[in-house]
Amino acid sequence: MSRLWTMDEIAAATGGRLAGGPFASVGGFSIDTRSLKPGDVFVALTGERNDGHAYVEAALSAGAVAAIIAEDKLPGLAMAGRYLIVDEPLAALYRLAAASRARSAARIAAVTGSVGKTGTKEALRSVLAPSGPTHAALASFNNHIGVPLTLSSMPATSTYGVFEIGMNHAGEITPLTQLVRPHVAIVTTVEAAHLEYFSSVEEIAEAKAEIFAGLEPGGAALINRDNAFHDVLAQRASARGARVILFGEHPAADVRLVDVRDGADGSLVTASVLGTQMTYRIGMPGRHVVQNSLAVLGAVSVLGGDLALAGVAYARLRAPRGRGECLTFALPQGGSFMLIDESYNANPASMAAAFAVLGASRPGAGGRRIAILGDMLELGAAAKDLHEALASPLLAAQVDLVFTAGPLMEALHHHLPSANRGGHASSAADIEAAVIALPRAGDVIMVKGSNGSRVAAIVAAFKTRYALAGQDNGADKA
């Protein structure tokens, strides 16, 4: 475990006071005792349903260096503890994050967008790493807690930092980007997501443009030229004094797709990156992945990374769990099937992109393309129409069977041709048994839905029922 902070440094940065001890060096931060590692500092946050102060004793017993606690909670805690006492833990975390950014000489990238934030963040982490130590959150830590946690955990020796910034309301991105202070801000795309909280997609574009509010002087804004709202984003970036860099297939793009050969397991891409032409292979499928690779390589160039090394690293890239991870499972009777795990989240644009990947897959002899879909959430009054509209890209991708779960997906179920209707249930739990028994040799099955639709449980059930090809997971396959 590398030293990240001393508790004296944290106390100075947060304005808190130490009690107890002795204190070891700090290796990280945690807000959850279930994932806390020895050497972490436990930050006792108070939420709507849980108060982290109730878990302080468990955190210290699990090896936490100390717990950051609120002054008014101290009387209710054991006297013999290791504490950093502050006015309010979340506010203290923000002060620590600001101190982390102030001490760092790292070149920083921040990523937002309706689709592709986490994949782009992960790609940047992977392709920048050969050019120098690169810090990024291991998970999708993109909100008002995750961003300061990630920034506080950035080693002072980092050469690069990559931050994902999300939102579902206007005004959420501004304080986070001003905390991160990126040298490069990427907007992957603007699409119909979180419409429950916005009256139009243009309002979403305005909210995404908040990321430019934190750009360092002379910073760059990487904007998708192929998106309908590129002008809005470019205007907002220019108003902040940013250098505007456009990426995409459009001839006017500064980082431009020259040629692509798509395959079931990846793509061979030729691109012009700010005047430098390069060819690279991407180790995962999807035209949306190709599109975002242009933003990634543009950012690498602006941040001073090695483009050639980044191109080589792209060949090793694999989709993370829940965002396109491909798994091949053995069947008890022989043969295998492929599962594409897209269970982390969904909106109309990411659904269409996932269907295109499913359509590009190559089922084995006798195999089928099958989609198992959960509700897309936070779409407001347009939800029914947006679910019905998924029928077109599904059929274009030549998906054979579609199983749907949830009240919103019922609209899609009834909108599909009868030959393509696999089945519908009111929830993912209610359809799980039917779809788990479904696979036959050669099938390619995709599971996708918003996180709240609980379709990730279906993926977990597949993993329990079937062994990965070439492995034995010990599960009962009967």
Automatic annotation (TrEMBL):
Keyword Chloroplast in annotation? no
Keyword Nucleotidyltransferase included in the entry's annotation: no
By its UniProt entry, which Pfam families does this protein fall under?
A: Mur_ligase (PF01225), Mur_ligase_C (PF02875), Mur_ligase_M (PF08245)
Pathway connected to this protein: Cell wall biogenesis; peptidoglycan biosynthesis
**Which stretches make up the Mur ligase central domain?**
111-299
- The main location is cytoplasm
Biological process (GO), any one:
cell division
What InterPro entries does the database record attribute to this sequence? Mur-like_cat_sf (IPR036565), Mur_ligase_C (IPR004101), Mur_ligase_C_dom_sf (IPR036615), Mur_ligase_cen (IPR013221), Mur_ligase_N (IPR000713), MurCDEF_CellWall_CoF430Synth (IPR051046), MurE/MurF_N (IPR035911), UDP-N-AcMur_synth (IPR005863)
Q: Which UniProt keywords apply?
A: ATP-binding, Cell cycle, Cell division, Cell shape, Cell wall biogenesis/degradation, Cytoplasm, Ligase, Nucleotide-binding, Peptidoglycan synthesis
Q: Which residues form the Mur ligase C-terminal domain?
A: 337-450
One GO cellular component term: cytoplasm
EC number, UniProt record: 6.3.2.10
* Localization (cell): Cytoplasm
**Briefly, what is this protein's role?**
Involved in cell wall formation. Catalyzes the final step in the synthesis of UDP-N-acetylmuramoyl-pentapeptide, the precursor of murein.
Similarity-based family: Belongs to the MurCDEF family. MurF subfamily.
The record's section on NCBIfam families has:
murF (TIGR01143), PRK14093.1 (NF010693)
Name-wise, this protein is UDP-N-acetylmuramoyl-tripeptide--D-alanyl-D-alanine ligase
The organism is Candidatus Raskinella chloraquaticus
Q: What is the lineage of its organism?
A: Bacteria, Pseudomonadati, Pseudomonadota, Alphaproteobacteria, Hyphomicrobiales
Q: Which gene encodes it?
A: murF
